[in-house]
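User: Please predict the structure of the protein below. I'd like the answer in structure-token form so I can feed it into my own downstream comparison script.

Assistant: Understood. Taking the following sequence of 280 residues as input:
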Amino acid sequence: MPNIDDKTLNRIADALDRLSPKDAALPSLEGASAFIWHVEPDHLIPISHVNHIKIDLLQGIDHVRDILVKNTEQFAKGFPANNALLWGARGMGKSSLVKAIHATMKNIILIEIHREDIPSLPRLLEIIRESKKLCILFCDDLSFDHDDGAYKSLKAVLEGGIEGRPENVIFYATSNRRHLMPRDMMENERGSAINPSEATEEKVSLSDRFGLWLGFHSCNQDDYLSMIDGYLEHYNIDADRSTVHAEALTWSRTRGARSGRVAFQYLQDLAGRLGVKLNK
């Protein structure tokens, strides 16, 4: 075997080093107060302006609002706080409340994760753990369908894993379903299982990982009209209240619901007809 001098060995080592893949730097939580998590490859997209409304404009949800504000304040001060599941009627301000609370907190980062990226949660939590920054991990419209095993990953991350949830992160999720799964999915599991009660407990145990269950219910007429009045005042829209109320009620009937979302949709229509711009 021919002798190879040190210079040749060093050149070979340098060439191999250039060919070998470099360790990718962990995504950074610097430079913004909000991010969106994406995978393949893992990266955090900074959001310079979060689309939120003032918390005072959220009408008809005073009780759940106060609970979530208090929970978030505890977390911001370094005290124990619970993961929260905001569930219930569409358009009643579940995701708006999370974003509105974040806007009032100066030392908390908001990170949105899409439902389909739930299996990547352990990797994201490692980034948050290393950063030492306080983070609200937010998943909007969280639910699971048939043959979807991602809920098991979420269960382990929330409370069941060996490491547990990092102290500098809290998980807030919104859903139209209290137990995050359709009723027929739970019934099918119960009917096909050897022990029906154990099958049901397996499904329900995911929502049990959330210490706070905050229910959002359809609003009554008075709350709906209070939302309309709040928007009129906030955006300085000068219009006859009795006329506006009559139109707003008609608008809600055409949509079969009264909610904050429906109220704002009516306001946008009214502002457009009056030629008024809705400044952010």
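That's the full token string. Residues 221-274 form one domain.
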